[in-house]
């Protein structure tokens, strides 16, 4: 029986111990004081909002999805949702079919896809962010929510702006069919945001970004997302999307099990500075920031989840809390309970970190793979 030895990042503490594996599963966990100088061992990271990695675009062909999955695994991401940007409906349907066809082929040194995420197209023009405005559509202008029926089999998350005409009906329809609706790219009033969560919205797309905010006279979606204890909220913890001064407010407001670290990374992530096309618009990466060439607004990120965990922990957030935000919490949002924590019976998806919280190696389903050779984004 294989053993993994080190400082185990459990749900509430870091404990020197041993993990016994039985094939792809954790068989048992036992304390072992002799392991107190070993590497940190935590559950595999899960990125539920990622548009690309390592030069590979999630909306590319199956070879691109393969390349993305391999690159993500090296950064400790053992499961993920390839994420579509706002695009014509026929493009999104084709993307869904491609991901569905590709998913059963994934094994070995690739991060495991758990379905896909669709960031739009039913979002607000006023808060479009870096989404292409040519492809935004109000739910009421579609031929009913059934327009998304061809995507349902593997769609796990979809972003919807709750204030748009027909949005509440779409949110109800999607949630009744098992899709986790994320409120975002929205200019909603607090009342409209509350109605969106009440209709079935479960999470929030990149908190504070491309949404109405916290205002004492005119509160919006960000206010309700922070106040609603049951709502999950995504955080892009690169220091650019949300200033670090706001992180303590988020941590004190959201229940710890409702914070979800995401990368929102684009294809250029992990490749250094350069230019690419995102949703038909040119973007540029410079100084670890990704922005639209046209107007300079943020357009995704180039951070990895291990960097996000490291950044959050550097602000004083306990390591078990930071790790859960990148592992257990996103999985529980998706309703997946067989992985995401160090416990008997869980899938042996693990990340081994050094003292600086950098990935040394990654285990997926009981097999070790190497970590990154170099660090690009901090």
Strand and helix layout:
Layout: E1 2-9, E2 14-22, E3 25-31, E4 40-43, E5 45-50, E6 52-53, E7 56-57, H1 62-74, E8 77-84, H2 89-102, E9 112-113, E10 116-118, E11 155-160, H3 167-176, E12 180-183, H4 190-198, E13 201-204, H5 221-227, E14 233-235, H6 247-253, E15 259-261, E16 274-278, E17 281-286, E18 289-292, H7 305-314, H8 319-325, H9 328-333, E19 350-353, E20 359-364, E21 367-370
Parallel strand pairs: 1-4, 5-8, 8-9, 8-10, 10-11, 11-12, 12-13, 14-15
Antiparallel strand pairs: 1-2, 2-3, 4-19, 6-7, 16-17, 17-18, 19-20, 20-21
Q: Would you count the extended β strands for me?
A: 21
User: N-to-C SSE series?
Assistant: EEEEEEEHEHEEEHEHEHEHEEEEHHHEEE
* Biggest sheet layout: 7 strands, mixed
The overall average pLDDT, rounded, is 95
Class derived from helix and strand content: alpha/beta
Distance, first to last CA: 37 Å
Give the helix tally.
9
Helix content: 10-25%
Shape summary: globular
Q: What is the gyration radius calculated from CA atoms?
A: 20 Å
DSSP strand (E) fraction? Answer: 25-35%
Outline the structure in words:
The protein has 378 residues and is α/β, with parallel strands linked by helices. Helix content is 22%, strand content 26%. It has nine helices and 21 strands. The protein has helices at residues 62-74, 89-102, 167-176, 190-198, 221-227, 247-253, 305-314, 319-325, 328-333; strands spanning 2-9, 14-22, 25-31, 40-43, 45-50, 52-53, 56-57, 77-84, 112-113, 116-118, 155-160, 180-183, 201-204, 233-235, 259-261, 274-278, 281-286, 289-292, 350-353, 359-364, 367-370. The strands form five sheets. Strands 3-2-1-4-19-20-21 form a seven-stranded mixed β-sheet. Helix 4 packs across helix 5 (221-227) and helix 7 (305-314) packs antiparallel against helix 8. The longest helix is centred in the first third of the chain and has 14 residues, at 89-102. The relative contact order is 0.16.
């Amino acid at each position: 029986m294989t053993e993994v030895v080190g400082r185990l990042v459990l749900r509430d503490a870091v404990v020197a111990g041993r993990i016994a594996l039985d094939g792809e599963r954790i068989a048992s966990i036992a304390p072992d004081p002799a392991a107190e100088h070993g590497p940190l061992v935590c559950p595999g990271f899960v990125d539920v909002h990622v548009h690309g990695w390592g030069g590979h675009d999630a909306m590319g062909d199956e070879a691109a999805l393969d390349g993305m999955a391999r690159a993500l695994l090296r950064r400790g991401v053992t499961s993920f949702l390839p994420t579509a940007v706002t695009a014509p409906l026929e493009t999104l349907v084709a993307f869904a079919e491609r991901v569905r066809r590709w998913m059963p082929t994934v094994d070995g040194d690739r991060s495991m896809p758990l379905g896909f995420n669709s960031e739009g197209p039913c979002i607000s023009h006023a808060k479009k962010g870096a989404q292409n405005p040519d492809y935004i559509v109000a739910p009421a202008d579609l031929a009913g929510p059934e327009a998304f029926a061809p995507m349902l089999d593997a769609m796990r998350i979809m972003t919807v702006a709750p204030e748009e005409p027909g949005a509440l009906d779409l949110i109800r329809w999607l949630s009744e069919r098992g899709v986790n609706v994320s409120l975002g790219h929205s200019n909603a009033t607090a009342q409209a945001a509350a109605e969106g969560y009440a209709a079935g919205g479960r999470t929030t797309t990149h908190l504070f970004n491309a949404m109405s905010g916290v205002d004492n006279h005119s509160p919006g979606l960000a206010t309700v997302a922070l106040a609603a204890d049951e709502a999950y909220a995504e955080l892009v913890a690169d220091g650019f999307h949300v200033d670090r001064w706001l992180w303590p407010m988020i941590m004190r407001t959201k229940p710890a099990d409702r914070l979800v670290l995401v990368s929102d990374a684009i294809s250029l992530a992990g490749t250094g500075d350069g230019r690419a096309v995102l949703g038909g618009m040119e973007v540029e990466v410079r100084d670890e920031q990704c922005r639209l060439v046209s107007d300079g607004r943020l357009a995704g990120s180039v951070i990895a989840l291990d960097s996000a965990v490291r950044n959050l922990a550097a602000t004083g957030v306990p390591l078990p809390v930071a790790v859960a935000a990148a592992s257990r919490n996103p999985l529980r949002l998706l309703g997946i309970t067989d992985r995401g924590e160090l416990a008997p019976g869980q899938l042996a998806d693990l990340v081994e970190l050094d003292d600086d919280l950098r990935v040394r190696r990654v285990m997926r389903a009981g097999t070790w793979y190497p970590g990154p050779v170099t660090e690009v984004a901090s």
